[in-house]
Write a structure and sequence with these properties.
Layout (H helix, E strand, L loop, with lengths): L4 E5 L3 H13 L4 E5 L2 H7 L7 E5 L7 H11 L4 E6 L4 H9 L4 E4 L4 H31 L10 H14 L5 E4 L6 H10 L8 E5 L5 H9 L16 H4 L4 E5 L6 H13 L1 E2 L8 E2 L3 E6 L3 H6 L5 H7 L2 E4 L10 H16 L2 E5 L1 H9 L5 H15 L2 E4 L6 H6 L3 H6 L10 H19 L4 H7 L4 H10 L4
Parallel strand pairs: 1-2, 1-3, 3-4, 4-5, 6-11, 6-12, 7-8, 8-11, 13-14
Antiparallel strand pairs: 9-10
Length: 460
């Protein structure tokens, strides 16, 4: 991990020494301390500083002038203002110029460390977004995204059309279908791609904490709010915010989100200052929001505000032609990551994987392929290597359930008949408690014929 670099500009010798020692000795940060704004202006362009901490009142060049200079060089620079003149006007002016936060004198060690820690979290979030954008540039070229079924082609076409707009998008899909990947594809193919994509899982954060997480809070806004804190909407300024599982949001928060969408403004909890929200909203849910509206669990006005561009991701069981392609992708990926030389799957194992329902969708398939490759040293993955749930619940179940219906992508009749027979043999064995005589009777076969069929399919 790289060393954190901090630049301090403070004209008071004692304050400068104490602050420098606190940050270097306590945390191990690489600290450079200078005595005024002029010196800071000379040294800032010469290195890459993660954080700049500057006094507000300094001779010749004050903290606001230094802040403006730094922002001219690096718009994303994180600057913390120190002031013994904690007036609202000076703080507001600093924030307008782009200061991350301010701390008041006399300085308290715990407040300084907490503020710097929050600033570093902000820096790392920005760096992660930039790195992710670079890494995913190729990945989100739609010509190379995984999924060649007709249903996924329609999804990709929709993403292409909406990515360049600022329209609100909601992504519908079961757990594991890849809703967050679609959100990333939209963001990284938009004009906002150089700015942050901030993700919030609305279903994973307790209701009493979610409002603060989204909108931030001011010091003293509630018990435990010892410092002001910016929320995810502020972190996502000029970028996008991904509100995952928005269907789990409480009614009271739905009202506040509606206001943000309508007015493009919000306030921190306990705050008086109105903050503009230049943020694109991308939402996702596994729920049927129309039914939730009818049931009184989701606001109708919010539904129409977020349901501008709906994108429906089909479950994996409805796009089976993508399963072999995804398996090939995960095979290559995990062979490289795990330093393995697994050749692939035998035709019989492939049939089981193709016919399994995949209730956990692509995520379950990915995890299954990882497990299979980790457990297999070399050679091909066979039926015996498959997890019990796939071996027992695949087979001809898809063919049986679909009756005489033919999937959109068509099917191989010989394979379908084979899978049907194999599944029936297994079901009979399961129903008879493993007693082959009883299983044969259930299928109106003699025992010898039944056992021969079991051997043919390598069922023991």
């Amino acid at each position: 991990m790289k060393t954190v670099k901090i630049l301090i500009a403070e004209d008071n010798d004692l304050n400068r020494l104490n602050l420098s020692e606190l940050l270097s000795d306590t945390t191990g940060y690489d600290v450079t301390a200078v005595r005024d704004g002029k010196e800071a202006m000379e040294i800032f362009p010469l290195d890459k500083y993660d954080i700049v901490i500057t006094d507000l009142k300094m001779p010749h060049i004050d903290g606001l002038q230094l802040l403006a200079f730094i922002k001219e060089i690096n718009q994303d620079a994180v600057v913390i203002i120190m002031t013994g003149y904690a007036t609202v006007s000076s703080a507001v002016e600093a924030m307008k110029l782009g200061a991350f936060d301010y701390i008041t004198k006399p300085l308290k060690d715990d407040i300084v460390l907490l503020t710097v820690s929050r600033a570093l979290s902000f820096v790392r979030l920005k760096e992660e977004n930039i790195a992710l954008k670079d890494r995913l540039k190729e990945k989100y070229d739609f010509g190379k995204m995984i999924g060649y079924s007709e249903s996924m082609k329609k999804v990709f076409e929709t993403i292409k059309k909406v990515a360049s707009t600022d329209s609100t998008v909601i992504i519908y899909g079961e757990s594991g279908t890849g809703k967050e990947l679609v959100a990333k594809a939209i963001h990284f193919n938009s004009d906002r791609k150089s700015k942050p994509l901030v993700t919030v899982n609305c279903g994973a954060i307790p209701e009493e904490l979610l409002e603060s997480e989204l909108f931030g809070h001011e010091k003293g806004a509630f018990t435990g709010a010892i410092r002001s804190r910016i929320g995810r909407f502020e972190l996502a300024q000029e970028g996008s915010i991904f509100l995952d599982e928005i269907g789990d949001m409480s009614p009271s928060l739905q009202v506040k989100l509606l206001r943000v969408i309508q007015e493009r403004q919000f306030e921190r909890i306990g705050g008086m200052r109105t903050i503009d929200a230049d943020v694109r909203i991308i939402a996702a849910t596994h729920r049927d929001l129309e039914e939730a509206v009818k049931g009184g669990n989701f606001r109708e006005d919010l539904f129409y505000r977020i349901n501008v561009i709906p994108i429906h991701i089909p479950p994996l069981r409805e796009r089976r032609t993508d399963i072999p392609i995804l398996m090939g992708h995960f095979l290559r990926t995990f062979n490289n990551l795990k330093k393995k030389r697994v050749n692939g799957l035998t035709p019989e194992a492939m049939n089981y994987m193709n016919e399994y329902a995949w209730p956990g969708n692509v995520r379950e398939l990915q995890n299954t392929m990882e497990m299979l490759i980790v457990m297999k040293e070399e050679g091909s993955i066979d039926v015996d290597d498959l997890p019990e749930r796939i071996y027992r619940n695949a087979g001809g179940t898809h063919v049986i359930k679909s009756g005489l219906e033919i999937p959109e992508e068509g099917l191989n009749l010989n394979e379908a008949v084979t899978l049907f027979e194999k599944n029936i043999l297994l079901k009979a064995l399961e129903k008879s408690g493993g007693v082959k005589n009883k299983a044969a009777q259930l299928l109106k076969l003699n025992r010898t014929t039944y056992v021969e069929k079991l051997k043919r399919y390598n069922i023991t």
